[in-house]
Amino acid sequence: MLIAAVGGVVIVALGLGEHWISPWNPSNNMESVILWDIRWPRILTAFAVGGLLALAGAWFQVLLGNPLAEPYVLGVAGSAAVGAVSGMMLFPDSVWVTSMGAFIGAWVGIAAVLAFSHLGPTRLLLAGVVLAALWGAVLMLLMAMLPERGLMLAYAWMMGDLSHSSLPIWLLLLVWLGALCCGLVLSQSLDKLLLGERHAEALGVDVSSLRKKLLLLASAVTAVAVTAAGTIGFIGLVVPHLMRLLFGSLHKVVLLASAFGGGLLLIIADTAARTVISPAELPVGVLTAVIGVPVFLWLLLRRR
Fold this sequence. Notes:
The structure is a single chain. By secondary structure, this protein is an all-alpha fold. The protein has a single domain (2-11, 44-303), classed as ABC transporter involved in vitamin B12 uptake, BtuC (Orthogonal Bundle), CATH 1.10.3470. Helices cover 76% and strands 0% of the residues. The chain is built from 13 helices and no strands. The longest helix is centred in the first third of the chain and has 35 residues, at 29-63.
């Protein structure tokens, strides 16, 4: 069902824009260029980034034992963006240095969050919100120091932008596939971890090793997603919960559905972002926040 939905949305997203272009019968060479050189790579980027953010959100929720956890809310995406912009300041023409900076920044953000993990789910969530504000302030400071050439790119990252991705499409799709495979390999252990650490250890799970693996996977995919598209919030919060409501709570199903569902949601959001006020564009992070904030508040009320 999700694959069919992704296929249908991709066809609609290919055609939609300032002017409708038939994906099957472009009328001239210019329309072919728009379809396959501009819209098609952007759709694939949205699919991969959305899936990665959804997988990271599902892992963070298990890792921290908090259903409200996700990279944006906990500030991990913000810290990854700080690392990426720092790399851009040092080596403005190197994509790999920017990616490494995002990876290191994501690790720093996770370490900061885990430092408050002993406070309990509610206080940990509050600590994540405060840390997200801190990383936002640091990011603004770095932007004030950036040269004019890198300022627009950094600003686009803050708002979420899929039109200037510097990572190759094949690399994003390869990371998406690798992250999904790793998640499926760990799915049974994740199911046992939901029962609690003691029960998981009694069932043969090395909880300490599992948490390290989740930490590495979540930081890696968050770094890649932030490097490709900036800080796009709430995908990692909304999609795993929606997939659990639709398909149940077994992680073998939840992770597979989240990988496709996150891509589906971000394709829809990005298509709306570039067509609602066409020919101008809205930052895709604005639309995901419009979707995610009501869901976040509903989850808070539901937990109360």
